[in-house]
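Run: sequence + S-adenosylmethionine -> complex structure.
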Amino acid sequence: MFDRYNRRIDYLRISVTDRCNLRCIYCMPAEGVIPKGHADILSYEKIATVAGEAIALGIKKIRLTGGEPLVRKNFLALVEQLKKLPGLKELTLTTNGVLLEAMAGPLKDSGIHRVNISLDTLDPEKYKKITRGGDITHVLKGIDAVIAAGFKRSKINMVLIPGVNDDDVTAMKRFCLEKGFILQRINHYSLDNIKSIDRNYIAERPLKCCSCNRIRLTADGKLKPCLFSDLEIQLDFNDLRESLIKAIEVKPESGTCNSSRQNWQIGG
Ligand code: SAM
Ligand code: SF4
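>> structure
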């Protein structure tokens, strides 16, 4: 489906949980967050129903994100349900990689096509600081497990944080070359002001609004037409098609400000 500005919307990002096993400095508050209760988040059945309707409207690619998607119980069951949906061309995952060592093989077998792993530095101490306590060895083992599982075109997402990891880019490039990963640099931003996107660095993300092809589904069942906007469409399970059409129709030409949610509540 095309939006009002003639952009083809064919990409749905689904946040499956607002819980996370890290507390990255650019994403979550230091004191942690109060996660939603199970009753307040969409069941896997409901997520798959929304995905099916979205595909009928022209969505070709779905990315599973979070919070940290791999912390949600029985995550593979969701992947298996989505995988069965006819018309879905690509099913991908964005993860912090902490739980990938054990899960990479099963994820490949269940039907995930490609994986993006978030890693902002190779320095264990700096990693611990950025993630507020994370242990990089888990992520590095997860990366090797992704390679061993046979995933292709995997990416490393690196957020460029001014004054913190700008000097890590060369080492990250070398690491990705060695591992056969693509380095995707992301300019740091605050959701409450699109002008906060730090364009001082050359980076692959965020995309310019004119080439945005996505809508988002939050774990608590809201459709977000734009990351940098407070607009939200409550899903109506009696007419999901209409909810999705509405979300695409109100997608703004460009983002401005999102003061109601943080990245961990949307999925980046
Ligand atoms: N927990 C998973 C992870 O970290 O990969 C998935 C969710 S996370 C919100 C998705 C992506 O958003 C990650 O690559 C993360 O680095 C990025 N992100 C989070 N906050 C950001 C910010 N303020 N600026 C730029 N990218 C951000
Ligand atoms: Fe968790 Fe991902 Fe946010 Fe880091 S960026 S706190 S891993 S959701």
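>> summary
The mean pLDDT is 96. The chain has one domain: 11-146+208-265.
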